[in-house]
Specification:
The protein is built from 8 helices and 12 strands. By secondary structure, it is of the alpha/beta class. The chain has a single domain, classed as 3-Layer(aba) Sandwich (Rossmann fold). The protein is globular. The two termini are 14 Å apart.
Length: 285
């Protein structure tokens, strides 16, 4: 098993010197075994997206298990997340479905009901049609029975369902400005809660192999919004048990998170994550 590695990422400042930003603890190993070795109640925020068991072609992982085996596996890694999460922490779980398998995300939520409280359900809108215009990207299907699937879920779990969030960190201006004076809770500010539908499209790319060499990623912006919703200043340690090519780690860096923990079993995705993070120096402990 690879040794424990810490990676330091630096950025330039206005004072023409380099200062540490995010300390990375990235491990190429199975997340269930890896998380079991971490101290309990040490993580402020988890943002992750596990395999969906929909037959996605990963390099190492087989994404076709029988339903009960898959749900039991989900319960095992979720139990470790619960052990690691602080009482004040949040766990954002991105799960998608297939038109022919629409109940899977809800079955996962039901599987985790003894571990967490589902505090918010967010709909990640990847593509939307408004009048005769389409925005965003989606994977079209040819079917006489099903619609194109243009969204996924972000389930916000906490330990007790009573965690305050920063609703206005993702706030948007009022369309009708008279609402600013009409509603006392605005305190005169032209900003309201965005709500639970998030339009976060993928960036247009020319080559998946070169620009997004992973079959199932979420945008960096999506993870950034999860960090901000929980409260950026409250996130000292963030975890992603299914690191992939490192989009959650990039989000942690962009939001100034002090420490990031990540697990990935595939050596190619792990190497790509380090490359994208610019981790040129490391030391082993």
């Amino acid at each position: 098993m690879p040794g424990l590695r810490f990676f330091l990422l630096y950025e330039s400042t206005l004072f023409d010197h380099f200062s540490p930003v995010t300390k990375f603890d990235l491990r190429q190993e199975d997340c269930v075994a890896g998380m079991a070795r971490l101290a309990a109640s040490t993580v402020d925020l988890v943002v992750t997206s596990p395999p969906y068991n929909l037959g996605v072609r990963y390099r190492k992982y087989c994404d076709r298990q029988d339903r009960q085996s898959y749900l039991s596996w989900c319960a095992r890694w979720a139990a470790q997340i619960r052990r690691l999460l602080k009482p004040s922490g949040s766990f954002f779980l991105n799960i998608g479905a297939a038109p022919s398998n629409p109940m899977l995300p809800h079955e996962i939520v039901f599987q985790l009901r003894e571990l967490f409280v589902l505090q918010n359900t967010i709909h990640w809108i990847k593509s939307i049609a408004i009048d005769d215009r389409t925005f965003g990207h989606f994977k079209p299907i040819s079917s006489k029975r099903f619609l194109n699937d243009c969204h996924e879920y972000i389930f916000h779990f906490t330990l007790d369902g009573r965690i305050d969030i920063d609703r206005l960190a993702l706030g948007v201006p009022y369309q009708d400005k008279s609402n600013i004076a009409r509603w006392s809770h605005t305190s005169g500010r032209d900003k309201r809660c965005r709500g639970n539908t998030w339009f976060v499209p993928y960036q247009t790319i020319q080559s998946r192999e070169k620009e997004r060499p992973h079959p199932a990623t979420f945008p960096v912006q999506l993870a950034e919004w999860c960090i901000k919703l929980h409260g950026r200043s409250r996130v000292r340690t963030m975890l992603d048990p299914f690191l992939g090519i490192g989009n959650s780690a990039l989000a942690a860096t962009n939001c100034g998170v002090q420490k990031f923990l990540g697990f990935e079993i595939d050596e190619s995705y792990f190497a790509e994550a380090k490359r994208r993070l610019g981790l040129l120096s490391s030391r082993t402990r």
